[in-house]
Amino acid sequence: MKTLITIIMLIVSCAVQAQIVTSRNAKLSFFSEAPIENISAESNTGVSALDLSTKSVYFKVSMRSFLFKKSLMQEHFNENYMESDKYPYAEFNGKINEPIDLTKEGIYPVTVQGDLNIHGVTKNYNVKAELKVRGGEITANSTFPVKLADHGIKIPRLVIKNIAEIVQVTVAAQYKAESKEAAQSYSSPKKK
Fold it and tell me: Which residue in 145, 109, 146, 114 sits closest to 129, CA to CA?
């Protein structure tokens, strides 16, 4: 009985100490530079959570939320390449490698290692990012390359000069503290 009480107190203590901040309008974009045309798209509806105590990072975005300049590009992106009905989200679960204190103001160049799931295929990445803590807010920015073939995304030979094999992915999030209940919904994100 004494051990059970100790475990419960430890769990409650950990939950209270957990400092999770979230972003409900994270901006995610990608850029494809190819000989015939450049393609870019952007979504401002990503969600992200950052656990200040464990340095864990989570991002999730709906593939259908990416907007293109040309509607036909958007249609091909969702139907031909990303199969968005079958694989509706891209997700990243990672952890900041450096021992930084995000409760103190400053600019922190960091690396984040974690698993990126796109198109139903998960690959481990180690990406550079910058975290800025100022005025009680935390912002995060990162740009990193993603090789489409690594995520099972096939480019037909006919359009090989229209779409780059490696695209640049950019993420930007501004975090704020949430209520304890909202923060707990992010504390153990589930993979789909």
Answer: 109
CA 180/CA 184 separation, integer angstroms: 6
Query: What are the pLDDT tens digits along the chain (192 aa)?
Result: 454 444 334 333 333 345 899 999 999 999 999 888 889 999 999 999 999 989 999 999 999 999 999 999 899 999 989 999 999 999 999 999 999 988 889 999 999 999 999 999 999 999 999 999 998 899 999 999 999 999 999 887 777 788 889 999 999 999 988 655 554 554 444 444
Nearby residues of 119 by Cβ (< 8 Å), 6 or more positions away: 82, 83, 87, 151, 152, 153
State pTM to two decimals. Answer: 0.80
What is the H or E stretch that residue 7 is in? Answer: helix 2-17
| Cβ-based neighbours of 66, under 8 Å, separated by 6 or more | 28, 30, 41, 42, 43, 74, 77
Number of neighbours of residue 115 by Cβ within 10 angstroms: 13
Task: Report helix, strand or coil for 83.
Answer: coil
34 backbone dihedrals φ, ψ, rounded to 5°: -135, 160
